[in-house]
Design brief:
The complex is a heterodimer of chains A (416) and B (475). By secondary structure, chain A is an alpha/beta fold. Helices cover 22% and strands 34% of the residues of chain A. Chain B is of the alpha+beta class and 475 residues long. In chain B, 30% of the residues lie in helices and 22% in strands. In chain B, the strands form five sheets. In chain B, strands 1, 2, 9, 10, 11, 12, 19 and 20 form an eight-stranded mixed beta sheet that branches. In chain B, strand 1, helix 1 and strand 2 form a beta-alpha-beta unit. The two termini of chain B are 36 Å apart. The chains are: A alpha/beta (416), B alpha+beta (475). The interface between A and B is large, with 43 and 48 residues.
């Protein structure tokens, strides 16, 4: 069986960033596996700007960001396979690949999972009604419009105010479609504040918060939808129902990490993130398998994905060098309380380095305190003007503070 | 003049066409949709029922038990997915034991083999996720699961291989008696035929009423389902029923042949034959009722919901299969267990037709039909051999179900090939997985466009105006 030191699964921003950093760190034997015809992943269809401010110190479009990574990867002569699908990974790190050349299994000494995420489908949230054509996930619509220049309809409503939903509201408007509304179940948007301003407000597209679609109407092509306000238990209030005529409905109702391969490899998953459980080396529960980017937890900014992928690459380097599990000095679980919905990493094993604790809240908090406790000792406290579920937060704890973890039973992050 | 016109390309029409193709009978099937099996057939539990709950002496009992017997061989000959997973009917109290015994006795009288009544310990040993409240269960080992759409396609394709013509998007609007037969008027011209068979399912009343004095009325009985991801398959292997009511067999929990879990169907009589919508209350009630059987139905694993209409006749409690005029044969009210019964209905009608037309057997009758070759499930060597002969099998289209361009392309290029997105989905399973088409929609669109040599803007979800993209027509 062919053997490779480091296989990186996915040639999107996470995979490319990891590959670049790994090569820069001196790993020679690398293979990036990408199922599409081109590298760059989802960035290729994100033709809007707003990428790269942190990594490249300039504002780029998605394809420009991807291009920079691809150019660098080519410069470093990193080998990659295109149009190749990973069918399976075993806990022994055997990777089964499918391409037009056939099915091949390669054994890796280390693996970085960088498969990204997928969209939650309509069925998962069970909006009732007919099943006509004209209903897309926002990402599929983005691909049809941006990658192929196809026209998908005349009048649209978008369900869900996550970033892709907001960006598609603007995109479809620019394509000449009449975007009648964005409908959001929660009392707040799941997207970045800047996207609400730039994608909705600038185009006078109404955002209906605390609303849901109660019926989809249309026997052949979509004809209309019925929306209603919801009460505090998110149940529709019948007397608020009203009809909106539209031939296109986009669902942007959340993203889920692609975790099928992680599962196949025996990696334990976090029920809150739907991604892998990792330590602060981004190593999963399977030795030598690392995870980063949206397959680990859904990010808002690609810059954060790149930084996280760099960390995974450095850890993979250490792992390959020591030829063993990263030195475990402690095993301290990270728990969440108060308004914190999840935090990554879920375990601290290495106290030799600073810690970037990434977390998200479950609701909007204004003027809230973010506190970190080592058992009962408070080691970090900061007051934030606003925290929203749509924006990932990062708390950085210095190596000095982390060194104090030696006899600690748990780290707790709390928002009040 | 044709020998036989079959109106309707659902499971019944296709089964009849298949049986007639064993003879030198010039048969056409007229289907109003762009694909076969797009009405009652496609939204079906996929259960090949044992036949214990049909009334003694009914056509339902007769055709169900016979159909169940026929399925083993048909599955082999026609590559139809089929597995005898067995069924349970659960009883939760001592009082219910009598009702279970009644069903048992009826089943035995209907000729259902190997029935047995099991006690709690035996039941929970076989299905550990069933409710601890279960007291008794009727066990029917001959109950099976198939995929109703593939069965329909298999029957239809065997008929097509043996010379039956299928006319799609051809809707019947009139039937007139003419000398030696009938004239069937459609939006695509008229067909004259010696025999006409009404297999129009939910529309069988309207077809029959075009020519018969006695008026039928189909009151569709809507059934809504929830489909769970394959990761939920651990919860049950048998088809699990509760005690039936007058509305039917009730909410079942069952695996599908493809390892999803099905929860449903509900049963609500409605007026609108086009109403295949779902509603929250019904779906929630499905789950509530199903939880009586299996308390821990993992609702977060629901990937989609859908509904189908059973072709229930307003007053008839049994199937109506009758020759109303010489050469005009009705099948009306073919609701559950229509899928199981279809091959037996096919045989029965074949006998009526051959009696009338006295045709010679078809000496060139092709007995076997190959299904689509799937990459998934093959050994490594077989996979490599397949990709070597057809590199399309190395190009993943649907990552959830590991379906490649090979399967999608095969679905389009068949004796009855897919012409629509739903047609591809039902044949190849591309788009049926947990992402529900998020990843493969564009790929399937492009393959359909390439294979059918039409512009992507003309591709539909299921025919008529169900265009996927913006389409302004030729005007």
């Amino acid at each position: 069986m062919k053997k490779i030191d480091l296989i990186i699964i996915g040639g999107g921003p996470a995979g490319l960033s990891a590959a670049i950093k790994a090569r820069e760190e001196g790993i020679q034997d690398i293979l990036v596996v990408e199922r599409n015809k081109i590298l760059g992943g989802i960035l290729n269809q994100c033709i809007h700007n707003g990428f790269g401010l942190h990594v490249f110190k300039e504002e780029l479009t998605g394809p420009e960001y991807a291009h920079k990574l691809i150019e660098r990867a080519k410069e470093l002569q990193i080998p990659f396979l295109l149009e190749t699908m990973v069918l399976d990974i075993t806990p022994q790190k055997q990777v089964k690949l499918l391409s037009t050349n056939g099915v091949e299994t390669i054994e890796a000494r280390a693996i970085i999972l960088a498969m990204g995420c997928r969209e939650r489908p309509r069925g998962a949230i069970n909006i009732p009604g007919d099943r006509p054509s004209g209903i897309f996930s926002a990402g599929t619509a983005q691909e049809l419009v941006n990658m192929r220049g196809l026209k998908i309809g005349k009048t649209a409503v978008i369900v869900g105010s996550g970033d892709i939903g907001l960006i598609m509201a603007r995109r479809l408007t620019l394509e000449g479609m009449d975007v009648k509304a964005v409908v959001e179940l929660m009392p707040f948007s799941g997207g970045l504040r800047r996207n609400i301003a730039q994608c909705l407000d600038d185009f006078n597209i109404p955002l209906h918060l605390s609303h849901t679609v109660t019926k989809i109407v249309g026997k052949e092509r979509l004809e209309s939808i019925i929306i209603a306000a919801v009460d505090e238990n998110r149940n529709p209030i019948p007397e608020t129902e009203r009809l909106i005529e539209c031939d296109t409905l986009l669902f942007s109702v959340g993203l889920i990490p692609e975790s099928e391969l992680a599962k196949a490899a025996g990696v334990a998953l976090d029920k809150r993130t739907n991604g892998a459980i990792v330590d602060n080396n981004l190593q999963t529960t399977v030795e030598g398998i690392f995870s980063c980017g949206n397959t680990l937890h859904v990010h808002d900014l690609v810059d954060d994905v790149t930084f996280e992928a760099y960390e995974a690459a450095v850890s993979a380097k250490k792992y390959l060098q020591n030829n063993t599990k990263s030195p475990t000095t402690v095993n301290v679980p990270v728990v969440v309380s108060g308004g914190v919905r999840y935090a990554v990493p879920q375990n601290i094993t290495d106290i030799s380095q600073e810690l970037k604790l990434k977390f998200r809240v479950g609701a909007i908090y204004e003027g809230a305190n973010v506190n970190v406790f080592f058992d009962n000792e408070q080691v970090y406290s900061k007051t934030k003007k606003i925290l929203t579920p749509g924006e990932m937060e990062i708390v950085t704890l210095s190596a000095d503070i982390i060194a104090k973890l030696q006899n600690v039973k748990e780290i707790r992050i709390d928002v009040k | 003049m044709k020998d036989v016109v079959i109106i309707g390309g659902g499971i019944v029409g296709c089964a009849i066409a298949m049986e007639l193709s064993k003879y030198k009978v010039n048969t056409v099937v007229l289907e109003k949709n762009a694909e076969v099996g797009m009405e009652a057939t496609k939204a079906n539990s996929g259960i090949v029922h044992a036949g214990f709950d049909c009334a003694l002496g009914s056509l339902k009992a007769r055709f169900n038990v016979r159909g169940n017997q026929l399925f083993d061989q048909l599955a082999k000959d026609l590559s139809i997915p089929f597995r005898k997973n067995g069924a349970f009917v659960l009883a939760f109290s001592e009082n219910d034991e009598n009702r279970l015994q009644e069903i048992f006795d009826r089943g035995v009288a209907n000729g259902v083999p190997h029935l047995e009544i099991l006690k709690k310990e035996q039941i929970l040993k076989m299905e550990p996720y069933l409710s601890q409240e279960v007291a008794y269960a009727l066990h029917a080992p001959t109950s099976g699961i198939t995929f109703g759409y593939e069965a329909t396609l298999a029957f239809g394709e065997l008929a097509a291989l043996n010379g039956v013509d299928f006319h799609f998007e051809t809707k019947v609007c009139g039937i007139a008696k003419i000398e030696n037969g009938y004239e069937v008027k459609t939006n695509n011209g008229s067909f004259t035929s010696r025999v006409v068979i009404n297999a129009a399912g939910t529309y069988s009343d309207e077809i029959s009423n075009l020519i018969n004095e006695k008026k039928y009325k189909i009151r569709p009985r809507k059934g809504e389902y929830l489909l769970l991801d394959t990761t939920a398959k651990y919860i049950v292997d048998k088809t699990v029923f509760q005690l039936p009511s007058k509305m039917g067999k009730g909410i079942l929990v069952a695996p599908t042949f493809h390892d999803n879990i099905l929860v449903g169907p509900s049963a609500n009589d409605i007026e609108d034959k086009e109403d295949k919508s779902t509603d929250i209350e019904t779906l929630q009630n499905n789950i509530k009722t199903a939880r009586i059987s299996i308390p821990e139905i993992p609702v977060h694993m629901v990937i989609t919901s859908f509904s189908g209409l059973r072709a229930t006749e307003a007053t008839a409690s049994d199937f109506v299969v009758e020759e109303t005029h010489p050469g005009f044969i009705n099948t009306v009210g073919i609701n559950s267990p229509g899928l199981t019964a279809a091959p037996a209905i096919g045989e029965y009608i074949r006998d009526i037709v051959t009696e009338r037309l006295q045709p010679d057997p078809n000496p060139d009758f092709i007995k076997n039909r190959e299904g689509i070759k799937f990459l998934k499930g093959l050994s490594l060597d077989e996979q490599n051999a397949l990709i070597k002969t057809n590199s399309k099998y190395g190009n993943i289209v649907c990552r959830c179900e590991s379906i490649t361009e090979g399967e999608v392309s095969a679905a389009i290029n068949r004796p009855i090939g897919a012409k629509t997105m739903d047609g591809v989905k039902f044949r190849s399973r591309a788009g049926t997985g947990r992402c529900q088409g998020g990843f493969c929609t564009l790929k399937v669109l492009e393959i359909l466009s390439k294979e059918l040599e039409i512009d992507v803007s003309r591709i539909t979800k299921f025919g008529k105006n169900s265009f996927i993209l913006k389409y302004e027509g030729s005007q």
